[in-house]
From TrEMBL:
Record's function text: Role in flagellar biosynthesis.
Record key words, sorted: Bacterial flagellum, Cell membrane, Cell projection, Cilium, Flagellum, Membrane, Transmembrane, Transmembrane helix
Subcellular location: Cell membrane; Bacterial flagellum basal body
Membrane topology annotation: Multi-pass membrane protein
Name under which the protein is recorded: Flagellar biosynthetic protein FliQ
Family: Belongs to the FliQ/MopD/SpaQ family.
InterPro entries in the cross-refs: Bac_export_3, FliQ
Membrane-spanning ranges: 12-39, 51-70
Superkingdom per UniProt: Bacteria
């Protein structure tokens, strides 16, 4: 196993991790921004007001994007397992 192979495996793992995490991060970011703007406009500074909408949006995002996330992860792991013989040599 050469250093370039290790770097390629690490890069691929990071790409898949970022791609799978992106929908959740974007949903939390957009929800937080909208709630922050509403809190600033109404001057209501309640912590549960920002937590509950984020929790609900994250749940909906997980339900909608979950199958795609699982498929992406299993495809990457399957490719990684099938490449083990060529990586070892």
């Amino acid at each position: 196993m050469t250093p370039s192979t290790v770097m390629e495996l690490g890069r691929g793992a990071l790409e898949v991790a970022f791609m799978v995490a992106a929908p959740m991060f974007v949903a939390a970011l957009v929800t937080g921004l909208i709630v922050s703007i509403l809190q600033a406009a109404t001057q209501i500074n309640e912590t549960t007001l920002s937590f509950v909408p984020k929790l609900l949006v994250m749940f909906v995002t997980l339900v909608l994007a979950g199958p795609w996330m699982i498929t992406t992860l299993t495809d990457y792991i399957r490719r990684l397992y099938t490449a083990i013989p060529s990586i070892i040599n």
